[in-house]
Amino acid sequence: MSAPRTERRGVLRGTARRVLIVPQSGDGPFEQVIFIVRDGSAVSEAELLREALDAAGEARPSPPPRRKKRLALLAVLATAAALAAILLLILL
Asked: Which key words tag this protein in UniProt (predicted)?
């Protein structure tokens, strides 16, 4: 990795962080999930890893929105009502 860049305001601070990287399986769009752990967290490493794996398992893209079935149902009902009205006009 390259050294941190300096900005006009000065040197970057707070770059020493605890980072947990969880690789993802090949079936999703993500290669890896990166967690930055809070300083002073009172969680054991095993618990931290379990929570990270649980959260990474949920890191999937949302499914596409479902199509509205009500509009199709309304179209079918309107067509049936129109046909019933035509039949009544013919029979009367």
From this structure: Membrane, Transmembrane, Transmembrane helix
The two three-digit tokens of residue 42, written as one number: 């009172």
Asked if residue 42 belongs to a domain, the reply is yes
pLDDT (tens digit, 9 = 90+) per residue, 61-89? 667 777 777 888 889 999 999 999 999 99
CA 38-41-42 angle, to 5 degrees, is: 170
Q: How many CB atoms lie within 10 A of CB 56?
A: 21
Query: Distance between CA 73 and CA 23 in Å, rounded?
Result: 45
In a domain, 9, yes or no: no
pTM of the model: 0.43
CA distance 56 to 24: 8
What is the residue range of 29's domain? Answer: 18-91
Q: How many domains does one find in the chain?
A: 1
